[in-house]
């Protein structure tokens, strides 16, 4: 009797029962060059199979996603999160997951002195995968007094912290530094070199520091300049032509990240750049308390803006999944490869009359909009706006006392 | 020359006496019995005029609101921003949803109110009010919420008297022990401070309490029973005959208020459907929004309103119960919850969408509906803080080499 039970218990494993089967969606998975109608099967926390016509009878939960796009969970490499709502930061889960974002990289909110608190108070409680760029400023992103203080730019401390938390820290951030010298950038680069990670830089031109020198001399190939469609980055000349050093830097391997925020994305800059072929390497939000309001710069909205400016859906998804994964050296993410973590976004592409604001509140009237309909994080459905996986109440059985 | 310029400037200012003009929207302002196409003019922080045809030339910024509903900013009577483990920061969600006032339902107690005021109230654009927890330590778990010894009516009433700008009532929450001590102390504090009490208390087996006595003998007219559709906390529908309990009907007649408090456990389709069929709707629509209920249930204010409309409530009625009624419940009417001239310019511009939409209850079960209310623009204290459809701003191609457009 006992062995019979064991056999029965073992049977499902052999039969490869899927926990969740996303049926009939259009998969866009640039890492694997997939762009067609495919089913996605999840077992436990991982992607088990991606293929045509996977058998629904093998799945515990079948979700019909016909008419939707299925992509790897989105990766937003420029976020500001803090569950306590400190300063400008937001709660990660309810600002990431409803936008299809399953991996969010906090961009320097914490430094060597504050990261462990951040890990304990925020990362540990988040369902979203929260990674981090460690601020070269030991005290983190908490105001000009410390962010402009060269004594805060301690390379050894930063290196030690990165090495202690390699599972979560993917690079070094330098931001908001005002003095006319290169201490912040150079120390960030030093810390990144010593740890084999990348640097994200948020500033453009500053007195005593040209943008050209920043992207051609101080930053290394693989380092990321964020906010590059912003007003303070001299990316265009008076004729709105892209400056030659932009192309040169791109050739060197400098990565250009959107980092929309409430100040750094302008249609009057982005549109001419995209028309001249200068697309972002990575799409990201710089999401914080102010940017979610008027520009409403959530990940899915920022992606919608690029779609309406004229990028293809595949280009947009590529720059929101596989590209950011590569940029932070985490190629295990941003893909629907079999065996990868089951982080999935189900996205609706809607037609209608829409409008999007940029950081200057200029409006782009649009005909298409992306909407995150369902999000799976680590094998669990955590967001389901259209109720695709929800049971209709008429078929739910007696779940209350008053059926 | 100088005088001419001054005169011109003066003429300009007189011509454009309004800062913002919402033109052509369907104004739903139950407090003033308005439910028709009206223009709404804002001057500074206040509603200046609501009238049939206010000339566009009289305003600096004109928004075409035709096709949209214009309502007083929504008031969410049951929100969690402090103390509770699932607390969320009001500005993360409220203004995006057209909610301009949230009432924190029992996050702080008399010991923690000052901290709450500093960390939440002072930092928010959303208007944050509070029901002070009768438990001195606030909503931080059983060690505080079951601790009758630290439920002190005198001290609670004193903190209320000193902070009437923020505190509008008292909350009794999650009390899990037997007996009447906790609720009686909450109501005593309410009596001392002259404010209502919101009750969220389990009626457990062996608690020595019943819903009948709670609603008919203990709670006062004007006190609020939240989580009304939670079938584990109050049996509002008889499990035997499916009827709304006589004591619920009688309590309502007495003036006890029933609040929705959706949350992750307190809105169940079977209960709400049975109650709605018998006309037993919430007096006040509220979200009990917290880190869980904001996800699968998506229970923000427009979502809660949409769910009640799916159960047969009219739009007018739903707006009444999301503006006027909550304002009255916390004794803030008519300062809040109306578009009356001279009132704070807190406004929601909403779209009523047609389509097929899934609405999920606290247990994640869905009901499909064909109408969905969605917030598209929010004005808080006279400022446009959210604008999903760009109603207030120009096309970028026509804005030249624009800087930040006000």
Report on this structure:
The complex is a heterodimer of chains A (403) and B (406). Chain A is α/β, with parallel strands linked by helices and 403 residues long. Chain A has helices spanning 2-15, 92-96, 115-121, 144-147, 155-164, 183-195, 211-218, 244-252, 267-275, 299-309, 313-318, 322-327, and strands at residues 18-29, 34-43, 46-51, 59-64, 69-72, 74-79, 101-111, 129-135, 169-174, 198-201, 224-226, 255-257, 344-357, 363-377, 380-384. In chain A, helix 5 (155-164) packs parallel to helix 6 (183-195). The two termini of chain A are 38 Å apart. Chain B is built from eleven helices and 15 strands. In chain B, helix 6 (211-218) links the parallel strand 10 and strand 11 (224-225). Chain B folds into two domains: 2-71 and 347-387, Roll (Urease, subunit C, domain 1), CATH 2.30.40.10; 74-329, Metal-dependent hydrolases (TIM Barrel). In chain B, helix 4 packs parallel to helix 5 (181-193) and helix 6 (211-218) packs parallel to helix 7. With 406 residues, chain B is α/β, with parallel strands linked by helices. The radius of gyration of chain B is 22 Å and the shape is globular. In chain B, 24% of the residues lie in helices and 28% in strands. In chain B, strands 1, 2, 3, 4, 5, 13, 14 and 15 form an eight-stranded mixed beta sheet that branches. A seven-stranded parallel beta sheet of chain B has the order 6-7-8-9-10-11-12. The chains are: A alpha/beta (403), B alpha/beta (406). The interface between A and B is large, with 47 and 56 residues.
